[in-house]
Amino acid sequence: MRTLLTAIIICLSAAHSQAAKPNIVMILVDDLGYSDLSSFGGTDIRTPAIDKLMNSGLRFDQFYSNCTVCTPTRASLLTGRYPDLVGAPGVIRQNAVSNWGYFKPTGPTLPELMNKAGYHTGMVGKWHLGFESPNIPNDRGFEFFHGFLADMMDDYWTHLRGGVNWMRRNKEVIKPKGHATEIFTQWAINYVKEQSANKDQPFFLYLAYNAPHFPIQPPKDWLDKVKKREPQLSIKRATNVAFVEHMDHEIGKFLNTIEELGISKDTLIVFSSDNGGSIPHGALNGKLRGGKQEHWEGGIRVPTCAVWPGKIPVGRTDAIGITMDLLPTFCEIGGTKVTHEIEGLSLADVFLKDDKGDPNRTLIFVRKEGNRRYQGRTYYAVRRGPWKLLQNHPFEPMQLVNLEKDPAEENPMPPNTKVGNELIQILMQHIQKSGSIPWQKPTK
Fold it and tell me: In which residue ranges of the chain is CATH 3.40.720.10 found?
């Protein structure tokens, strides 16, 4: 009798522990300008859905993407590591001549760890980490995938890249109709409706939009509305504003579904961008210098928040975070341990206990790229405390800035100082470590 009672108690305890785990939703948008949200200072743009999210939880004022471009940041999200340590220092593309990465995790991926913690794992939207096995979502831990394997879309209505259809439902080629932002939203809504019906298992959803990455293609009625409301804007800026506002509307539909299903208090939502806004395409990064592809703050500091009603206090934090921190954060909150080597640090105490993190932690930024500007070489940045050492292409000398004294990075200095030499030494050690990691597909 006692043995039976003990077994029942254990089962009930396990069920309670499972039920106590929140659903986790990671919303990652593409190339969002730092001030292309009303809540981040945008005066010509209206983003009520994302603004509401930002004001419903903890907003980060010093959160970084792992890279100035797409692939490396996504690789860091899924591995908790610097991208060049998992074979993704640059953009993965379908043509070998322009490809600068081959995704190779050094341990279990984020969805694999979430599976271990008892979560159902789904991904909707842009993948951008490979085109064939083993580097497609279903082979890297996601139980369900509904999205786009490639990098940018050549057109948001045809969904092709280089003339190839990369839309998939799991491993099946599909041909959906409509604007990609609206398609991904509906697929995400469908996923959470289906998963929320299963009260015994939490879900982890990675929702990755292509928008507002160029080509900047809002639906015509959205552009017409912005042009009428903001007649002073150039057509390039108006088109970008309309594109972001359309995306915001779609994200709002998804967030409303979470509310309507009655699961908002049981769901942790993190919102971020994979890099800064692209200035040549009409994005704005506010007072931050530079934009996408650059190691100025405008290229790597991204609007980010974490929302979990009743658990995460509403407010703002200066704690430093970076994309690769989200893997250990989700694992800690989801109840599984990371036992292999990663560089990401859990932000769970920042989320839940008003912890300030480590203001003096060291962050390294890496990007490899081709074309005449980069010529297949890598360029870097290092931040430690208020100091940042950076370059914006491989042939540019390193520059040193103090972000506390010069937040706009208007007066960079030569790095021939004690702190500059220390940061150079840190970078050299990192380059030595990453030098053993291949970033091209293994030859047979």
Answer: 21-358
